[in-house]
Amino acid sequence: MTSLNRRHLIGLMGATALTGCAPALTTAQLGDDPFEGGIGGTGIVGLMTGSGSVLVNGLRVELPSGARIFAGGQPASDSLLVPGTALSMVARARLGRFEALQIDVDAPLIGTLTRNGRGYAINGTALRLDTSQPVAGAVGQRVIAHGLWQPDGSLRTSLLQTSPAGLDSVAGVAVGSPDAGWTIGQTPVAQPEGEILIAGQFAVVSGAFAAGTLGATSVQLGRFRGGQALRQLSIEGYLEPIADDPGFRISGLGHSFDRRLALDPFASMRALYFGPYDGRFRARRAVVLPERQGLRQALLRPAEDANFSAGLTGTAARVVPSK
Fold first, then answer.
1. For residue 198, what are the domain limits?
2. Is residue 296 part of a domain?
3. Pick from 206, 221, 236: which residue ends a domain?
4. Would residue 2 count as lying in a domain?
5. Same domain flag for 242 and 305
6. Residues 171 and 146 sit within 8 Å (Cβ to Cβ)
7. Are residues 130 and 197 in the same domain?
8. Which of 187, 221, 255 lies at the terminal end of a domain, its last residue?
9. Residue that wins the pLDDT comparison between 206 and 3
10. Which of 52, 21, 250 is nearest to 151 (CA)?
11. How far lies 307's CA from each of 60, 92, 113, 121, 186, in Å?
């Protein structure tokens, strides 16, 4: 769990002030390599599209024996890494290929599947299901739901799995305050005594969902919890509006874009963003993704001898403009 002290808070305030005074971003000629020769120290947040190697966000990432894998903060097996899984990965470039250093599997929702009008919900959060996902027979059972958070706080699912008995959980951006109360997605959260939630920051909250509220017993803050320094990010998601510049963040993830970016052209789109990271995400390119799973997988699948898909370059990858 990440702890904040006075020095951290002062550093965050200083970084925000400096960003607000920075000049407009310049757009240089973009080459054929979306990561400019390698992805050492790159954070990758997205949904697995294929196995063998880990295929995610149009990248082919090898899984060496020393890679660390965690699920819910606990050491886990690579058997969890199946298509549709929501993961956060720290990767590097080594010997001409991409390698995973650490993978965190933080399922957005774990809990009992319930009816929600004509649809379904977990822990009070509505699910937007792919029509190919048979779920009616699972009502009343505990499930793990992977997918992408929507601007309205619902979850567009990519994978549903049965779950053994255990804690309920929700993993996403905390919204609210200690006085007004907290929600993650559409799930009301009761913060445990002695723990901390921070508005706008990603958190994994575990406990028991009862009487319409997730009574939390533990909180983990942040997506990348291995302590590695990141130089670049690759993130799949939807934008949601916020009051602060640049006016948007990625739904459910909480990564702060550089304030100078002009993200309006992507406001209603599912997209994959990538670019440098220096405390704020200076996304340089965006690939708009189709909702149909087959089309999306075809666009993002690297060739057998390639580290990244052709869909991350050329006209498929749009430059993210700056203000």
1. 109-221
2. yes
3. 221
4. no
5. yes
6. no
7. yes
8. 221
9. 206
10. 250
11. 5, 12, 38, 37, 37
209: which residues sit within 8 A by CB, 6+ positions away? 111, 112, 123, 124, 168, 187, 215
> Does 22 map to a domain?
no
The residues near 185 (Cβ < 8 Å, ≥ 6 apart) are 108, 109, 125, 149, 153, 154, 155, 170, 172, 252
Q: How many residues does the chain have?
A: 323
Q: Are residues 191 and 99 in the same domain?
A: no
Q: What is the residue whose two structure tokens read 């470039």?
A: 93
Residue in 89, 80, 37, 28 with CA at minimum distance from that of residue 308? 37
Question: pTM higher than 0.90 for the full model?
Answer: no
Distance CA 110, CA 145 (A): 6
Task: Report whether pLDDT(225) > 70.
Answer: yes
* 272-297: average pLDDT: 92
The 8-class DSSP code of residue 310 comes to: G
Same structural domain for residues 128 and 207?
yes
Q: In Å, how far from its chain's centre is CA 251?
A: 8
117 & 217 share domain: yes
234-244 in b/e form (b: 16+ CB < 10 A) is bbbbbbbeeee
Instruction: Give the helix/strand (H/E) hosting 109.
Output: strand 109-116
Radius of gyration for the alpha carbons in the chain, expressed in angstroms and rounded: 19
Do 113 and 212 reside in the same domain of the chain? yes
Q: Is residue 3 domain-resident?
A: no
In sign, the C-alpha dihedral spanning 288, 289, 295, 299 is positive
Structure tokens at 151: 């601007």
What is the full DSSP assignment across 164-193? -S--EEEEEEEEEETTTEEEETTEEEEPPT
Residue 68: pLDDT band (50, 70, 90) is: very high
Tell me which residue of 234, 195, 232, 239 sits closest to 214, measured CA to CA: 195
Which amino acid belongs to residue 86? A
Q: Do 192 and 93 belong to one domain?
A: no
Instruction: Quickly state the pLDDT bin for 185 (edges 50, 70, 90).
Output: very high
179: region left, alpha or beta (phi > 0 left; psi from -120 to 50 alpha):
alpha
Count of structural domains within the chain: 2
Assess whether 102 and 242 both reside in one domain. yes
